Amino acid sequence: MATLTDRLEYVIGVKAADALAEHFGIVTVDDLLRHYPRKYSKGSTAFGDGDAPPDEGEHITLIATVAKVRSNRARKTGKEFLVVTLDNGVTATFFHPRYLKGGLVEGARVMMSGEVGFFRGTMQLTHPAFLLLDTGKGTASLKKMVAATSDGGGGGEVDLALFDRDFFPIYQATAKLQSWDIYACVRQVLAVLDPVPEPLPEDILRQRNLMSEDDALRAVHLSENADERDRALDRLRFDEAVGLQWALVGRRYGELSETGPPALPREDGLRAALLNRLPFELTNGQNDVLSVISTELTASRPMNRMLQGEVGSGKTVVALLAMLQVVDAGYQCAMLAPTEVLADQHARSIRDVLGPLAMAGQLGGSDDATRVALLTGSMSAAQKRAVRDEIASGAAGIVIGTHALLQDAVEFHQLGMVVVDEQHRFGVEQRDQLRAKAKGGITPHLLVMTATPIPRTVALTVYGDLETSTLRELPRGRQPIATSVIFAGQQEKWMDRAWARIREEVAAGRQAYVVAARIDDDEKKPVQRMDRDPRDGPPRKATAVVDLYNQLRTGELAGLRLGLMHGRLPPEEKDTVMSAFRDGDIDVLVCTTVIEVGVDVPNATVMLVMDADWFGISQLHQLRGRIGRGEHPSLCLLVTGLARGSRAGERLQAVASTLDGFELADLDLAERREGDVLGRNQSGRSYGLRLLSLGQDREVIEAARTFCEQVYHRDPDHPGLALLAAPFTEGERVEYLDKS
Ligand code: ADP
Ligand code: MG
Question: Atom 17, ligand 1: which residue's CA is nearest?
């Protein structure tokens, strides 16, 4: 008899076990039983109703009846080939058909498996492997047959008795390990499996009316009753949500959280001094978030908090006040920014706001002032050394930098808080790496900031180890942004009008961004978005920023002061261009998305995005956040060569229709495939989530979170939950993947 933790070779033999391990990383009985069917096939339905058609190149398995068999000869070589048309419209072509003719006859029922191709709108399989389920002649006396493989050779032996039913699970498979091979292994394992122990407590099963684990693991593979399968899937989906939440709850309350640096607010400190000299009043939202943060910083358990808020909602000043509370308690703070431009801008604006409070040891500095240090990769070795000294000695209370901060050479005197700006650019490992620089066994407080509004389910899963706060209102006096989509192919006049608008704004003293999706032809970027929808027509090359700059300079925007900015410029040049734009010496910045995150030029009021269909929803929303930051109304123009009715066209219109980042984030989530949102673990398998959908299973995820919180407080070592969490605690951790 077998249990879930048994290794498969003892149950199904070394050969089959090796194949499963090699192709799917499946090693134990548990691994195999959690390789859930992708779908269930009944009769001759190849694709369930409403299923998305497979992509070109995808490996699929289908069951159908042969409708027609035709023998052809290749025109050039005269070689014979066989075209088999199935009753679901799919055709299969075989190039060495001699030995097949006997089996593949009209009326035969087959399971076929191979890579999908499309030819004139017809789905085709070339040389698929197949299994004859019923010869169609009433002579299904074969008990065993050899599954044909695509090279015409013999595959493994398959016991046809297993297929003597009118319903089959269909598994994700490969050419070397077909769905029916996996099915046969599953059958073998289930036949000898001991009753599976129940990992969940009895009360939650009753409360959610869940099937037992034992029943669910069997029914999901073998039940011929659709309702029962659905209940099994519900149960296993809940398992998955609980496993993930248990892993996260462990991270929220576990080891990492034991000792933080308590920082009591001081009446006479820098934080109080800054509050006195701020040129504006904090919004209610800012005050609320600050009081939560302030309380958490006071505790000896480290804070783990994410602050989300639209671009311009004033997160930075909140982070700064939090950092000052920690500095007032004698600790240092580190702020990690994704790009040099941003790190530089943060250092500049934080020094500005602090004024004399950041001028320790300098003329005009106040008595209890601190210093703000900036460390980036492009500094000279001597500069870096000087900054590192300031950090190691503790002279710098606030340290701002890029990835350069993570290097071993950077040592802190007494690190007490880590702020990560634009979290989605960093993985969990990176924030942990920085936090590990604290001394004396303390874990610094952590505040991560993101301007990308994060859907609730993503916040609960991908960022589930963090508590979240949200700034919803923008500081007073902001002007709205109007957004229009320009379908350039259909409305050429509109393009002229767009350039004219930019000229008008510049004439009125404003500035503009023109954004392109690519740098130049050398760039190693695909010529199309990875997730292109075939309905959007053939791929086109996006305009390169360098070409666009040259074109506009002598053409549409001749006479204006243009600047060029992209990621491959040398750092000094980036600096020069950015400061010229900031100082108003450049009217129009022609750029790539390097300007995406956090850049703050309130005088910029127009943005024109070329090839806007290249960008994802969230990315466009981010980009748009560069304008509308000052007192003037702003305009965002999204240009696309695609048609209004294309999927990309609809996406752009959605962006144009709302400024609500959360609404757009949900739309974005619905568009993404799960794999884009969640990372992959080391074996390359998608990170543990098989059944749970972040787009659809919000209730399940929330219930699992509440449940795990409750159990954790009474039994943090619950063995059943630890088992469910295991797939989420090994290997690399989830991270939010940037789509660009
Ligand atoms: P975020 O980092 O959230 O994008 P910032 O912190 O950069 O936003 O704030 C954008 C601008 O708004 C900055 O110039 C900042 O000084 C200003 N600001 C922040 N809070 C307020 C407020 N309460 N009232 C007025 N202006 C504010
Ligand atoms: Mg910011």
Answer: 314
Q: What share of the chain is helix, strand, coil (3-state, %, to 5)?
A: 40, 20, 40
pLDDT digits (tens, 9 = 90+) for 322-360: 999 999 999 999 999 988 888 999 999 999 999 999 988
Q: Is 122 exposed, middle or buried (0-12, 13-18, 19+ CB in 10 A)?
A: exposed
Q: How far apart are CA 91 and CA 53, in angstroms?
A: 15
**Ligand 1 atom nearest residue 309's Cα:** 3
Burial class (CB in 10 A: 0-12, 13-18, 19+), 425: buried
From ligand 2's centre to the CA of 97, what distance in Å? 65
Read off the tokens for 665: 């984030």
Among the bound ligands, the one closest to the CA of 317: 1
Instruction: Indicate which residue's Cα is closest to atom 5 of ligand 1.
Output: 314
Residue 317 scores a pLDDT above 70 = yes
Strand partners, 399: 334, 373
Environment class of residue 363 by beta-carbon count within 10 Å: exposed (0-12), middle (13-18) or buried (19+)? exposed
Distance from the alpha carbon of residue 335 to the mean position of ligand 2, in angstroms:
12
Cα 173 to middle of ligand 2, angstroms: 45
pLDDT score recorded for residue 155: 44
- Candidates 606, 629, 609, 628; CA nearest to 620 is 609
Q: How many residues does the chain have?
A: 740
Question: What predicted TM-score, i.e. pTM, was given to this entire model?
Answer: 0.65
Residues with CB under 6 A from ligand 1: 280-283, 286, 309, 311-317, 451, 475, 598, 600
For tokens 């659809």, the residue is: 696
State the distance from the centre of ligand 1 to the C-alpha of 317, rounded, in angstroms: 7
User: Do residues 144 and 160 make contact, with C-beta atoms less than 8 angstroms apart?
Assistant: yes
pLDDT tens-digit map of 397-431: 999 999 999 999 999 999 999 999 876 667 777 88
Give the mean model confidence (pLDDT) for residues 245-258: 76
**Ligand with smallest separation from the Cα of 341:** 2
